[in-house]
Amino acid sequence: MTNPISTRKHGDVLIILSNNPPVNALSAAVREGLVAAIEQAEADDGVNAVVIACEGQTFFAGADVAEFGTPKAFQQPMLPQVVDQIEACTKPVVAAIHGTALGGGLEVALSCHYRVADPTAKLGTPEVKLGLLPGAGGTQRLPRVAGVEKALRMCATGAPIGAREAQECGLVDRLVEGDLIQHAVAYAEEVKGVRPIRKASERQDRVENIDPSVFDEFLKANGRKFRGFDAPMKNIEAVRIATQKPYAEGVLDERKLFMELMSGGQAKAQQYFFFAERKAAKIDDIPEDTRPRDIKRVGVIGAGTMGGGISMNFLSAGIPVTIVEMGQEALDRGAGVMRKNYESSAARGRFTPEQVERAMGLLNPTLDFDALAECDLIIEAVYENMDVKKEVFGRLDKIAKPGAILASNTSYLNIDEIAASTSRPQDVVGLHFFSPANVMKLLEVVRGAKTAPDVLLTAMQLAKRIKKVAVVAGVCHGFIGNRMLMPRQVEAMKLLLEGATPEQVDRVHVEFGMPMGPFQMADLAGVDIGWHRDPNRIESLRDALCSIERWGQKKGAGFYDYDEKRRPSPSPVVQEIIEKFAAEKGVERREITDQEIVERTLYPMVNEGAKILEEGMAQRASDIDVVWVYGYGWPVYRGGPMHWADAEGLTKIVDGLKRQEERMKPDFSFSKLLLDKAADGSKFTRG
Ligand code: 3HC
């Protein structure tokens, strides 16, 4: 293997250059090369200063996450030693930062005595997102250089800061435009004689006499976001230690906290998920020479909540949108809602007023269906009904230009049947956005039997452009996400009749880490969605609620009662209906344990996920996890349902399902894949 670290001299400045694509991760070879290069600088009397820089798209983007859990992670020199050696160098060392200096990369930069950066660079400590904390002195050096409040926010949230902000807080010494290395060398020439050499670990001025309320205030403002996660609290603790102990002691505490996190299940799940998310973007079986189609203008049919939200994604990414409605009033309302959404985001600082105007300026609202002829991609977001969708696609077929991609935002319906209503099924694909479509990160890309490879590739690349995480799904009822929701919903309803309350079922889910439980979700989405609308036809508990207009939050009543501020409380009316309904159906009521709720609602989801895999409706188990984390808020620290099942143990899942099988009949049947894997000891997501 070639050495990723090379050196060259420019006068008396030694330039240490890393070339480890794609992101200059600090792999064992890079660490080894860095130490050797610093030793070279020390040994060479002709060297008076050093510059550390990276080739390619970015400065070191962190430790090599792929090495975690392998012997390579422990191969000497480890990162703490590397950064100590850089800082101990007797000749001034300048970091030249471009792209993203993240995690271990920022720790390398912090161990350098000076930092210059390209103005577009970003600096951050995203370890918390991998269930970790900066483990190479970062939690101790960052507050000493950038100040406690900045370090606290960066470490606990993982959000990076821009180079200008970094300069303002002292993290970057100089911003330089143009040839970064040339500027860094010039800077090194300026500082090469400065003694004593400035070392972050020796600074105390920014960590002394810190009012401890800084930490309490931070937690008060951010605590909710951290619910269930281990790593944020340990990051906060580590930064607090920087204000209490000298560097040498603090760094030992940091190491201990780092190792505690690293050996825990959350870090494994979050690191697994990091790669799962990136893998999801890859389609296994499309020819390598496939080229995406050019998308210059997008058409959206329907200016309702979904159509508007979908449009905003493209407008925000600078892609013009033609949006079509049937009536002027609906069109005006739709455009008005989009503007309002943009303006409220602008009020929260997410957009500038100019960006809002630019985005809205790209919108062409029209009643003229034929205007869609100029679009390269047309997405329908009309009423969820097969006949309606077929009619729309039949019309589109007649007017869309050759090569235009025709997409349906259906959440359940058969894409092949929709495609068959056109003369170009190869151009038809499902693009299932999740509501609210301008906010939710997930996009299910539904691959029909005849969808062309370049259509799929275009959809995946476009998703990245509009900042979505796309997952390919096959054609089946509800695709990946909603299909797995169904068994959960069925069992949750049955549990109510058998003796559980909506509050109990929801509490179990929230304690598990979901943002809300099945009944809170039903109330939010609308209990009446998909209801037959005949108040006299009462065949299920849901029919009973719908018949008295308990349709959820929008009616102030659903599974819960709501006050004027939409705060829920248990509903005696619902309890009465449940008991009455159970009596009519002859369901014997009993005490339901929390464990049974887990086994009846979460385990069947794993079983359904296994069926989805078995049938080839998902490319890989990790894709299912990506759907659930980004589409439904499954706690990322549990990795997603399939990773979670692996971590729990598949025999445990199967045993639990067997225990509940009788009660779940006739709605439940075992996945053969799940049974096989449990029997042979293999896993869905590893091994
Ligand atoms: N280790 C190993 N591989 C990495 C990596 C890392 N730190 N960061 C990115 N990669 C890989 C990705 O898996 C991907 O591989 P693939 O092409 O085979 O799928 C490739 O690099 C490109 O990554 P992205 O698709 O994410 O590229 P983007 O350009 O969209 O984003 C990035 C680049 C902003 C650097 C983003 O990859 C990122 O955020 N990386 C993670 C950074 C991070 O978390 N660093 C901290 C690591 S932990 C640490 O440093 C511990 C220390 O404190 C001891």
UniProtKB/TrEMBL annotation:
Annotated GO molecular function terms are:
(3S)-3-hydroxyacyl-CoA dehydrogenase (NAD+) activity; enoyl-CoA hydratase activity; isomerase activity; NAD+ binding
Tell me the keywords, alphabetical order. Fatty acid metabolism, Isomerase, Lipid degradation, Lipid metabolism, Lyase, Multifunctional enzyme, NAD, Oxidoreductase, Peroxisome
Gene Ontology terms: biological process? fatty acid beta-oxidation
Record's subcellular location: Peroxisome
Which reaction(s) are listed as its catalytic activity? a (3S)-3-hydroxyacyl-CoA + NAD(+) = a 3-oxoacyl-CoA + NADH + H(+)
Q: 3-hydroxyacyl-CoA dehydrogenase C-terminal domain: from which residue to which, for each copy?
A: 478-562, 597-682
Pathway it belongs to? Lipid metabolism; fatty acid beta-oxidation
The record's annotation in Gene3D superfamilies points to:
1.10.1040.50, 2-enoyl-CoA Hydratase, Chain A, domain 1, NAD(P)-binding Rossmann-like Domain
Indicate where this protein is primarily found. other
Q: Specify the 3-hydroxyacyl-CoA dehydrogenase NAD binding domain's residue ranges.
A: 298-473
| Complex and partners | Monomer.
Question: What PANTHER family does the database record attribute to this sequence?
Answer: 3-HYDROXYACYL-COA DEHYROGENASE, PEROXISOMAL BIFUNCTIONAL ENZYME
Q: Which family does it belong to?
A: Belongs to the enoyl-CoA hydratase/isomerase family. In the N-terminal section; belongs to the enoyl-CoA hydratase/isomerase family.
**Protein name per UniProt:** 3-hydroxyacyl-CoA dehydrogenase
